[in-house]
Give the backbone structure.
Amino acid sequence: MPATESADLMLADRHATRRLGRRLAALLGPGDVVGLGGDLGAGKTTLARHVITALAGQAMEVPSPTFTLVQAYEFAAFTLWHVDLYRIEQPTDVLELGLDEALDHGVSLIEWPERMGPLIPAERLDVMLTQGPKQESRHVSLMAHGVWTSRLSDIADD
């Protein structure tokens, strides 16, 4: 079982969420998995959009993968897979999405990662978003597993 560490953040507004997305994007490399958890409307897709646009270095359209389940983005160093498992009923359904390559060689941003059940990679960063005290604010709980423990302070420090 890989080591784990945790940290909590309060994001005051959408600008703070964008900064978190940029910090996270700067740390990503092939094989990385980030689980994005939280209720509907918590900001999972918004954070994923900030990560993807930071990697692209420019504004771009980043549609929610709610209906397509998977959106792939080609970058020089890796392919990023933005995955939404909300409509997945059984963990084994994940295998039909072809995520093996993403998990091995790409970067995976996975919304609703708990739907993977026992198939969720042990080496990952879990990002749990909840509504903060104000409309645009969010509380973020980070749980780093394995190799992510050494990168946690680079994400949590603002």
About this structure: The mean pLDDT is 91.
